[in-house]
């Protein structure tokens, strides 16, 4: 993980940039970090240590504000419409690039479009894991899918909402395995995990951060990964690709955005702040403990990454079709 030379030079030269706040003055006021889901989900797990690091850098409060609703659409749109002054940023999940396409399936204008958001920094990108209660009867992926085949629609799984980052991977698996699962959407990954732990549902596709403590304490079992390679510490967990499900690969990523019209000098300071945060020992330790790997990509590199993911997942959304 290397911070680009451009980020470093941008941060050093900002004080001289026309119209920019002096380095010692930025941001001068609290910077709100919006998470479009309730506490406890992957975006929240990533946002909190990063926000704490930004507070130490900037010496202002960086409160994490949870704005759940509509699978993340409400919180994402609030940042898209926010003043472009650097004082409001979004810690988004990968679903940020999917929700506008999903809205079009309903024949309605999206609450926001991607060109209203400026990519600042990708922070993490983790393969999704299939988690079930430790008391569940399935010890392997094969047992889970065989049961789903015998009992169409009888195995409920939770998600963070229709077309969300926790819904799409399960839809991909169900289509590839030719099984029918019962989708139970919630307003975020935190409530979806609570439903799994409380026995309301029997499966969940999740980023590693939220479920890691419950896997360690023996409450949850991981049956499979949507990644390309085995995960450190969970090497025994098979990937869906290794089980013959070609193309069933999904990563839940967390990245920071600002309103699109944010001036470049301010955006440069924001990017530099995130670049420093991912090298902060406290952030690295927190995300490592949560099982999330830092995958830092700044500005244009993040924009290219997100655009490629949007194009790939648009096909998944179209395959799922309209959910009434």
Automatic annotation (TrEMBL):
The family database entries (Pfam families) matched by this protein are listed as: TctC
| Keyword Signal attached | yes
Keywords of this entry: Signal
Which InterPro entries does the UniProt record give? Answer: BUG (IPR005064), Bug_dom1 (IPR042100)
Q: Which residues form the signal peptide?
A: 1-22
Respond yes or no to whether keyword Flavoprotein is given for this record. no
This chain belongs to which protein, by name? Tripartite tricarboxylate transporter substrate binding protein
Species per Swiss-Prot/TrEMBL record: Plastoroseomonas arctica
